[in-house]
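Throughout our pipeline, every protein is held as a single compact record rather than as scattered files. Nothing more is needed to write down the fold, since each code stands for a local backbone conformation. The record that follows is passed on verbatim for readers who wish to inspect the format.
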Amino acid sequence: MQRGGGPVRFMMCSAPTLYTISLDIPGSLSERRSFHYFQSQKMAEMPGNFEPYFWNNLVLQFSHDHATIRQSLIALSALYEHRGEPREGIGATNAYVLQHYNKAVSCLVEYLASRNQDARVILISCLLFIGIEFLQDNLDSGFHHLESGLKILRDLRRTCNPIDFDNDDIYGPLYRSFRRLRIQAVIHSSNPTRISNLPSDGLELGNPIPSSFSNVFEARRCLDDELDSIFDYTRQLRDADNYKSIDMQAVNTFRLACLERLGQWDLATKAMLDNNIQQSGSTRAPLIRLYSVTVNLILKIGFEGNQMVFDKYTPEFEQMIIYAEKLIQSSELNKSQLLSFDMGVLLPLCFLIVKCRVLKIRRRALELLKLSPEREGMWQRASIVKYCEWKVELEESGRGDLPESALLPESVRIWQEEIPTDIDDKSVTQYIRFRRGMADTCTVKVPDDWDSVLGMANMV
């Protein structure tokens, strides 16, 4: 990251001394109230939060010493507090958010102009900027901040004294948070150029997987390694020509290697849960199991054109329902609707509804989807519900006289959906292309209320 007069000079500081956080922060009554609202939400209790100490302690601690972080938290808190308010109150909220967001940016510019900078302050600010942009549906701006943060982390690793991200109490959660956001971007983003600009670890499969994990956090970090490699690879195939011409021998070699490692991950996770009652009772455990089942299915099914193959994996879809129910019915998820920076239940449920053709399971997944948080990272519940309902209705319209318990014929199953994303003019009619069974590609007009669905960027 660079502003005006030359490169940023990072000061590698030791971890700050921990202390009881004072509630007496500088600012007006409304600013202090917004700050306290954020603190009261207890982000550590959210099932999708795998960095609880970072959010409940370190971010708040840094905010007391750095105005850019404090102003960012006030803006972010205001967005949380006033989400879903009546339309007549939105203008005042947006003005308040913009006021403090601009203050945060100005404070960061001043900080970058100072003689020495702590890279952690810049990275925390960047992470909060991403959250503010995502909550306002400004994904492009959020991606810009994500790119900046990833570049800073990459440069820190290339210094003469590289930081050990795995063992640092502050850089560690920052690195993991940015990395998980990058995984989301690879799955979500429709713009190949945007993805190519996002720095990557260049991680290859091969790091040994232990026989057991010590806790769910270690299991999640190992799963991130696999997700990073898998989705980077599949994204490259998608950006080439939407999977139309791929080297199936190379794909199968990669796929089988990934499945073997995910099998080892499953065994290590099971050993951890069998030996640790506290970990097995955590709401984070079903979340990582849910993602393991989902990515296993993606790899097992591969790039099949035959849509009947999904029927063989009905037990796996049923297992996904069980994990999703545990998460959605958990008291932590129900009492907090905060933005999770991480992926949660929305994406796996979307995958299930789109790929599973057992109507009973689909309907239950749709019920759970509507009970899910309104936003998880880059994902909007409303957009996903609209898309899933459209696909289920269109496929079910071809059922005819078949009973609901019967399998849908291949001829009515929709796949290889694609919404062209190279049209910048919003007045141009949008279309979605797809195949039905083994027939040629169909093209239909995107429904009028699908504006937010277009941002899902053909991820399915």
Observations:
- The first strand starts at residue 375 and ends at 376.
